[in-house]
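Thread: quick sanity check before group meeting

JM: Hey all, I'm pulling together slides for Thursday and realized we never actually wrote out the predicted structure for the chain we discussed last week. Dropping the sequence here so it's in one place. If anyone has concerns about the input, flag it before I start.
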Amino acid sequence: MFFDLEYNPEAQKVREYGYILGEERVREKNPAKLETVAEKAEYIVGHNVLRHDAPILRQYFSIDFPNVKALDTLMLSSLLFPRKPYHKLRKEYLKNEDEPSDPLKDAELCKNLLEDCIGKWNQYPWQLRYLLFQFLKNEPGFAPFFNLVDAPEQGELRSKLSEIQSWFISHYEKSICLRQDFENEWAAYRAEWCFLLTLFHEEGPSDFVPHWVRYQYPHLESILHRRRLVPCGSNQCPYCSEQLSSTKQLKKWFGFPGFRSFSEEEKIPLQQQVVESAMRGDSLLAVFPTGGGKSMTFQLPALIAGSQIGALTVVISPIVALMKDQVDVLTKRFGIDRATYIYSKIPPLERKNTIKAILENEKDILYISPEALRSNTIFKLLKHRRIERFVIDEAHCFSAWGQDFRVDYLYLADFIKDLEEEKHLESSIPISCFTATAKQDVIGDICGYFKKRMNLDLVKIVSSARRKNLEYSVIPASRDKHERGKELVNLLKLYDGPKIIYATTVKTTERLAESLKEYGFKSGCYNGQMDADIKIDVQEEFQKTDGKIDTIVATTAFGMGVDKDNVKLVAHYEISSTLENYVQEAGRAGRKPDMQAFCVALYNSKDLDTNFQLLQQSKLSEKEIGDIWRVLKKQSEKRERLVMSALEIADKCGWTEQNENTGALETKVKHAIMLLEDQGFLKRKRNQTQVFGSSIAIESVSQVRYILDSPNIDKTNTIENIAFRIMRHIITKKWTKNPECALDDITVNLGIERKDANEALRLLRSKRLLDQRNDWSAKIQRLGTFNCKRMLERAKYLQEILLKCCEGHCINEPFLLNLTKVNAARGETESGTETRKCLQILRGILRYWAHESIAEIHLVEAGHQRYQIEFLKELDIIRRHLINNWDCFEKIIDTLLIIQKEQEKKKGDSTNDAVWFSIDNLILRIYGEKDIEDLARQAQFEFALLFLHLIGAICLENGLMVFYTGLVLDISPENRTRPFSERDFQKLHDFYENKAEAIHIVGRYAEMMLKNKGVAQELLNDYFTLNIHQFRQKYMMSPEEKGAVSIDMRGRINAVNKEQKAIISSNARHILVGAGPGSGKTHMLVHKAASLLWLEEIQPNSLLILTFTRSACRELRKRLNDLAKGLAHGVTITTFHALAFSILGIQGSKKDFRKKDDDNKKNDEIIEKAAEVIESGEDVGIGTLGVILVDEFQDLSCSEYRMLKTLYEYGDKPPRLIVVGDDDQSIFEFRGSSSEYFRKFSTEFPNTKEFYLTNNYRSAVNLVRANEDLLSYLNYRVKNGKKQVAVKPEIGMLEFYEEHDRTRGAFASAEILAQKCKSDNGTACILSPENSESFLAAAKLEELGVDCRVIKGQDREKCPVESVREIFGFKTIVEADKNFVEKPWTTEQFKRIAEKYKKDHEGESPFELLDAVINDFVDGEDELTLGDFEQYLNDVSYADLNKKGNMQINVGTMHSSKGLEWDHVILNLGDWKPETQEQIRLLYVAATRAKKSLTVLGSVANLPNSWIKNFKNMGRLKECRVPRIVHVETGLDDLVFRYMLVNEKNKSRTRYLQEKFASIPLSAAFEIKFNQEFQCFNTYFNGRYVTKFSNKFEKDYLRNLQKNFFKPQTVKLIQVCKWEDEFGQAIWVPLLSVEFVKS
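JM (edit): ok, ran it. Output follows.
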């Protein structure tokens, strides 16, 4: 009986069956008939009848028959037709192979196949038939066959055994190795040998042993391997001496007559040793010199294995370009097309074809990246191929001691063990590790890993030889990049032919490649941040003989494996970070053995700082890993399995607001997870893809075609065609043991894009071709401030604001948008947490726009939340589309809440578990059954759910995988409560120490090369041959050389005095520093910050420095940049208010939050809101804080102290806290400051280490002593008993004049100062208790011809620099520069933009302010960003810019002098009397500003006696002449601008003024008139009323001057400024200079 059945494994039922018995042909579903006929049959013949049909017959039909009755044509055809690629029945009656089969027709095909097998049997020689009969006559599935054919008589053939043996040897000795012992193998594995006998009876490859045969007979693999691939060692063996001869195979595949030797000591060439070791099946580690042909030594065994046993060799390579290079070399140079590669960005169709070629044994070598080990697709692919070995190319990446450690390499052991288990292998898959640069510790690390994880002992084959055709040299280079560039050009001109230049950073490669083109070089750039396709293009051009590129500038990414044989010169623009890298990179030169090549390194000790900087910036801190662990625990809640993308984890840690480089963030997260896995906190599994259900209602492809009912089904790449192909694929999978079908499987196997697959799946769901199972789930917040409905309402409001901000921009017109500005512009009164949440919603909306293809969204600057937006549709269309979607969003939320309640009711509790649902069910509930078939509705709902997820209204847990691939993490239950500790971090700490030590060693090598090449060469050899302990001992490596800092940098940081050194060296968790005036506090702060970065190796982004003024921020930033160099760029240096704005996700300044009646209260409100957000536990975008350093700690207010405490308590592990200040200088009680927090710091923060800076570097010795006497009047001093010591031995001048009137004192002070300036060309200042006297002194100085600058306590608020017309206009032009989005500006580019702006606006201004801003901003910077410029404008003040003349003469208040110093200080005190503690401190602050002389004008009776007695009494002042003219410059607070706002009554006048002010030249004349009606002065322009003076200006200036007989005479324009009222109306307003003349 010929029989077949169709079975549904999921439904566990037989669909139908068919059989042929004699003339009877039946296709039936009723089992009764089958039971009857089965009893009549002598044999049951079927295809795969034993493994598939027989168990089903027994289970469902109660038909049991002995195996001897079964004849399996699958087994038989595999035996008799071994060269056929497939052994499926050829069902030509099917239009498509995926259609359900007809069991009756299959039974007929089975009958035909049996006839073919009988025919083939009769063609075999009698000797082979005898052997097959002897071995298989009792084997199930085969035995009945011998009753159907002419089987040999056993007795007749006994006499012919010797003849059979001779035939066997002569026939097979050239196909397999017959020199090994057979007896045990023949006896134990008879069936296996039969398959081999038929396989090698015919000519052809041996790669068609079917998967099912290997599975059924697992020993076949080892026999085949042993007989076909392992040399027996006998020269007399016909097979081994030919097919397994390494030299003959080398000639066959590569055309080389023999292997290369690297030294005369090699009896057997190293290449040959490696090849033959691999052929013996050894696991090995081979270390070759660069250019030593290591690639060929693993390719040759792979090609032999592929040709002899059809095995695949998997090569794990770290770089896509390296994979492509090696495949191209095999194809183009040697004509070998048996190698291929797969990487993440390969197009779907190409991936499909590649996978097909691998499965069909057309490829023997597969290159993959280490990251691909996490791919389920790769795992399934390798599961279906015979794997000969895994090769780890560039194996130094595997080792924590190596210079290019890659975390995904460490998953290799788990991957291989899973694969071996899945394939039921008898023995481990061998491993080969290859590298050109490996020191002893790297070798030990690699060997230790495989021994520990896989119990493999690697055979070590290590060459000590060095390349003889390379000439190494190091030449001294300049520190200046421009000079070094010239030195490089001069070097390159000395050599012909292709050249490679290595540089340390990506930016340097880009800059050099561009600049070399200007010198006529055909240069190109290659670095790790370029797209893979671009890198491949660059590499191909370089490889060409006449390509567009013959000089390539690259990072170390180009140093591994890329092979161009005629490179004459490898130049290092900067020294490499390790000797491994250096040798590896230099080894790109002279790949032709007979070619002399040169390796030249430009070296300056500064290069080491660059390498250390890159190391520091790449590090993960203990606290960062702890934060990731905290996020994972929080996200997983009580679940043991968590699926999240690396970027999503980084986002939850607050890192994405600090760094726009998503690739770097993902790498950082994966490294952290690797360490967490290593320490037992979790287990990372292979990457998760959404699994698509296969419970389908139909059973045939014809039904699919009927239901889809579209002419497009057969039109390639239409959605209907893709849907049909997907359905066909799912139906095929349905009839297998593994019916589940993952989305990635569909895209890979069918070669389609993921988005097309999703659209096709929507069509299938709409047609009810796929099941309606609940495959989506979401967490929904029903209650609280941030419940789902409120989040959606807020998103609607925010999206409208966002659209309004985007008005005026067209399709394909990129523009920049600052989300913090958008968030601030709302002007809402709300809690800090709500403000922060709004920023997150805004970011979610932008991400949704990108997913919906509404706009291209690109994050330009993370720290400033600046995005580039480019609309892909008209804004009106977008607005209508979004409004239409909103109804859908709201209904989905309502429906999900209903489903949630239903599920809770069913379960009997309200635990707020995830809601499970399907898209179709949502559509059904909301819009009815008709809309389920609407594809647009399907897509709308998918994207609606995504939108709700992105804005935080719901949290999708399942279903989101449609949009991204996540990391699958199993959280260890027993370690869930365990914190990540210093002990857990130790392994990574040791790794970083090794990296730092390697940089010191390469520095030593370079220094030696400059002095003695022979000694340097010895060090190089020792580095690779000695273990690290021996090397350290021989070269006396100091413990300091484990630190990631150069000797030069360490020396610069430690250039401090003894007191400061104690602070810098302390690693106490809590430090309080009491720093008196002139004690070098700022110097110490900068050096402490640099020490934290370089010596204590604190991550730059984990160091937060808080100050009170923008000018202090700016000064600290500049000085830290100068000292700490590149590491300083990642440090956050900010004020409390600026940080508060950042935490809230809004952009602004103090003035934005002011009320006229209560400035300080409003200032504190913003800080209170920020503290509230931090306390809530929400992500606040500040990342991981390791150290907080606070300057001027004595000036903290209650709100600021609260915010500091919340920052300290944020996260699992508190940061270190260092505070610096001087309670003697606490002078801002009026703004809420209190020195109480300074005094109680040591109590509130236990184990505080206290330090005091007592040296005074500022003032002359007698000034220091005099000012010390003021301190005796203060109570509760922290530094009580600590006296300042003057470092300067000079005696200064202390003078006192009796003068009670501050107005006369102002004029007199000016005359005294003018006299001092004649004798001493130094700095000087006149200080008064109030502002009103300052401008009088300034007027007198002007009359005396002395240039001066008035400093004010709120200098910026008078007129912010960024609001001035020329700065505002320039910034607008800068924001519109499209080139900025691609990369930052260079200094030259930025200056060119400024010059163009000045030219376009010629005549409007002399642009002195713009020039000062530009020159100050670009000073010392290589690259500039818009965010940096905005930060600069936020920080800078006129005090930083308006320095007139060589003598810096200032006039100001005592409060405004804080933090400044002058050679000469004059205190115009008049009748002012310091009565309170704060007033004593204010006098102390003002007096301690003086360096050389201090002059006081006041009342001796009002001043502290012990202080004033130190002064020389100069008597009463002489009368001085009052100046005739006084000029007063107005600020924003001095004019009333509401009369300039546009409204219906005054629009003609105001619009005229606005047009004029937009371009009016500075110095234009205005008029001033007294208004009798309102008794005030008004200003006019061209006869039109402009504005009046404010009450404040009237009080401070007009009345005071009028009292002294001064009248306003003329007015001229000094600046135009952008001003905005409280309702958001922005206008141009004038700033004026008013001239008062004495009557």
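AS: nice. Residues 809 and 815 are 8 Å apart (CA to CA). Confidence is low (pLDDT under 50) at residues 1150-1160, 1353-1357, 1443-1447.
JM: adding both to the slides.
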